[in-house]
């Protein structure tokens, strides 16, 4: 079972002796305020995208004065970076969980475990994939990717892609799924897994049950349609 | 080959004798202005979502005075409805194209044709799927779907779903793809087809070619991984 810990970063502002007032505020509010802001930011960015969110909205969601966000994080872009970074710990746990599924003896069980792990992780932490889709939509018809999206692609998505492709290649070599060029199959697999979780309300509308209750049906559908 | 005609609706304002000024403006600007506004609206909604777009932005994109939009369409919600309706003609052609692929003698060719038709249509008219993803993201964590999303689900998506599921069921019955509960498989298939087109810039970043050039590779990857 995956566990997705909350983030408890150190407040770097504590080490800046020049900002007496900031230090006092940070001592008073502590890491839990930082965490509350980061979680509110992730949720808001996931729902409305970077441009659709103001620091003021995030402040209301987090139950803090919006100047406190500027104090803790600086600009909206800085907050975005910090919010994505705050998920890094979860991702490491996710990558570790995926590696462990690679140890199963039966390759079919192994493939199933991988699919289920990805589904469960995405359901528990849907914000990064949602943010990813927002950036994809905004940049889709742009002449040039925004710096933000470019960094998302080069840092986070490239790393994720490498690990998933390794697991899919193993499944192909074991004859569990069809031999398809991996760079093309990545998108097929990724869409097959993510789509239902992203369009959760469409799934709930047509299936009549909360998205959390379709983990097994969704896993079975993916394994059943890809595995030989 | 699919052809996606521009929309040429009648301007209903012409039949409202009470609005002399409006009639004169409509006569002067004609359906081409309406069309330009609708196309600009679709593009803007697809990129930024309903909330991320102002009538003023659409007016700039369409190269018209923003009061002309209010004159032609009324509110932003009315413009949204008109823009989605303007795609209706394309959708009918798409549904017809899909039906024709159902006539092929070889079920595997038939399945391949369906997949390619959906990919080509989505590439030619990505705005409705993009708008759909925006609505999915906004409503994902909402307690209750917005009226706009609810109508999208009940009207357009339900109809699309019915036709795609019929084709997928035929492919299952012909033994081309695995027997998987169709309500679950719909999301797997839909994600497999749409994802790469939505995250077009990610595809371009990693594949190094424009999204339009991966139609065959993407079709092959889907058919190769699902078909038996």
Molecular structure report:
The structure is a homodimer of 228-residue chains. Chain A is elongated, with a radius of gyration of 20 Å. Chain A has 2 domains: 12-86, Homeodomain-like (Arc Repressor Mutant, subunit A), CATH 1.10.10.60; 88-226, Tetracycline Repressor, domain 2, CATH 1.10.357.10. Chain A is an all-alpha fold and 228 residues long. The model of chain A is unreliable at 1-19 (pLDDT under 50). Chain A is built from 11 helices and no strands.
Structural class of chain A: mainly alpha
Largest interface: A-B, 62 and 62 residues
Number of helices, where a helix is a run of at least 4 consecutive DSSP H or I residues of chain A: 11
Low-confidence stretches of chain A: 1-19
Number of domains of chain A: 2
Second CATH tier, the architecture of the largest domain in chain A: Orthogonal Bundle
Strand content of chain A: under 5%
How much helical structure, as a percent, in the residues of chain A?
A: over 70%
At the first level of CATH, what is the class of the largest domain in chain A?
A: Mainly Alpha
CATH topology heading of the largest domain in chain A: Tetracycline Repressor, domain 2
Specify the CATH homologous superfamily of the largest domain in chain A.
Tetracycline Repressor, domain 2
Overall shape of chain A: it is: elongated
Quaternary structure state of the chains depicted = homodimer
- Averaged pLDDT of chain A, please? 88
Distance between the termini of chain A: 26 Å
């Amino acid at each position: 079972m995956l566990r997705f810990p909350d983030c408890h970063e150190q407040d770097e502002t504590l080490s800046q002796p020049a900002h007496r007032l900031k230090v006092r505020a940070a001592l008073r509010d502590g890491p839990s305020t930082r965490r509350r802001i980061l979680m509110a930011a992730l949720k808001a960015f996931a729902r409305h995208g970077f441009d659709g969110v103001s620091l003021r909205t995030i402040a209301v969601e987090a139950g803090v004065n919006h100047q406190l966000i500027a104090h803790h994080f600086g600009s909206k872009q800085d907050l975005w970076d910090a919010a994505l970074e705050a998920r890094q710990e979860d991702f490491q746990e996710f990558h570790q969980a995926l590696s462990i599924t690679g140890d199963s003896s039966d390759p079919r069980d192994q493939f199933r475990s991988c699919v289920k792990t990805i589904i469960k992780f995405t359901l528990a932490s849907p914000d990064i994939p949602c943010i990813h889709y927002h950036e994809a939509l905004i940049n889709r018809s742009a002449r040039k990717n925004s710096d933000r999206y470019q960094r998302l692609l080069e840092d986070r998505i490239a790393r994720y892609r490498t690990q998933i492709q390794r697991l899919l290649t193993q499944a192909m070599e074991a004859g569990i799924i069809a031999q398809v060029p991996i760079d093309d199959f990545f998108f097929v697999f990724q869409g097959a897994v993510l789509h239902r979780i992203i369009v959760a309300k469409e799934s709930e509308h047509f299936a009549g049950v909360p998205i959390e209750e379709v983990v097994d049906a969704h896993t079975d559908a993916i394994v059943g349609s890809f595995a030989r």
